Amino acid sequence: MKRKNFAVITALFVALLIIFGGCVEKNPSPEGEGGSDIAVLPETTAAEAKPLLSEKDKLIALTYDDGPHSQYTNRVLDILEKNGAKATFFVVGYNIDKNIETIKRAQALGCEIGNHTNDHKILTKCDTATLREQVDKPNARIKELTGSEMTLFRAPGGAFKGVTDDIGMPLIQWSIDTEDWKSKDAAHKNRTEEERNAELRRIADEVVQNAKKGDIILMHDIYNFTADLSEIIIPELTEKGFKLVTVSEMYKAYGKPLNDGKVYYNIEFPEASSAVQSNVILEAGNYKVKTKGGNLNIRIEPMQESIVIGKLSNGDTAKVIKSIPGWALVEAAGASGWVNAAYLSPQ
Questions:
Q1: Catalytic site residue 65?
Q2: Domains, the chain, ranges and CATH?
Q3: In the prediction, which pLDDT does 74 show?
Q4: What is the pLDDT of residue 92?
Q5: Which DSSP helix (H) or strand (E) runs through 129?
Q6: What is the sign, positive or negative, of the torsion defined by CA atoms of 271, 175, 311, 208?
Q7: Which residues contact 55 (CB under 8 A, 6 or more apart)?
Q8: Exactly one of 65, 177, 221, 228 is catalytic; which is it?
């Protein structure tokens, strides 16, 4: 009787081994011989491991123009990777072939590659055939070399007036300009290390202190100075609670479409200066900004599509120098430019 029970138990044990043994995945050994009998759990996908971005997030988009550069772009990528951040790189066609590995590395890190023309030509001065070549050639080359398509465009010099429809892509401008090119080392050969560090700190402070949710920051990844500046700005923005994402990621998270032929400076919450213009002409003097909580853009020219060079918040003071119907030239917030006159009230 005992032998019979023992045989039954043994048979059940063997059966269980066979059943559960079939659920075990064989892992090949490093040498390719045999394998281990360690059960492998299904891997967690990137989408499952990382929460999706939403309009509640404090997002900001770093953008770099004129590259790639074999040394400085990779330094920027090192900083982004270290801080779990991403950026959008607007590349010039003549830099593509010699920096394919850098471009692929940027894509592997989740960064975005955008079009900055083939030869950095000012498109408003090009004929139609030249414009098409400047836009289409980099698009085709990136698609050929990486298999991915560029979907965003930045015009050299920010000059796009009259050619937005011809470009046929979303045009990405900026709301914060670091003007890093003015501080590049080649332009300041005689400055001391102390002066250089002070300039880095000054620009970094301006960016970090003025950065707002939905801003687009402009830099250039072809300068050593910019790589050093990135080493300051990226971790400090992260410490302030910003998530550094690509332009496309930011607009998608905030539910804002990026349409061909349209120009984008940042995501306003809301954009006060996009309201209907009044015909008021203001006298010279000091005025208060009244925007009901939004920001008032300071623009280079008195037109809605002009480049934004600064912002005024509700309650700020602006000194009006002169005015034309609907627009006022002001000095405020360290900038001089045009604002929508409808949002200025006498003090």
A1: yes
A2: 59-264 (3.20.20.370), 272-346 (2.30.30.40)
A3: 98
A4: 98
A5: helix 128-146
A6: positive
A7: 253, 254, 255
A8: 65
Q: Which two tokens stand for residue 347?
A: 């003090």
Choose the catalytic residue: 66, 69, 177, 220: 220
Q: Which residues contact 314 (CB under 8 A, 6 or more apart)?
A: 289, 290, 291, 292, 293, 294
**Residue 122 token pair:** 């000012």
Kindly state the DSSP code that residue 44 receives in the 8-state scheme: P
Distance separating alpha carbons of residues 250 and 60, to the nearest angstrom: 7
Which two three-digit tokens encode residue 329?
């030239």
- pLDDT tens per residue, range 187-199: 999 999 999 999 9
260: left (phi over 0), alpha (psi -120 to 50) or beta: beta
Which residues lie closer than 8 Å to 175 by C-beta, 6 or more apart?
215, 216, 217, 265, 266, 308, 311
Q: Which amino acid is at 124?
A: T
Look-up of token digits 């079009």: 115
Residues of the chain falling short of pLDDT 50 = 1-4, 8, 14, 17-49, 270-274, 276
220 is catalytic: yes
DSSP state of 295: B
276: burial class by Cβ within 10 Å (0-12, 13-18, 19+)? exposed
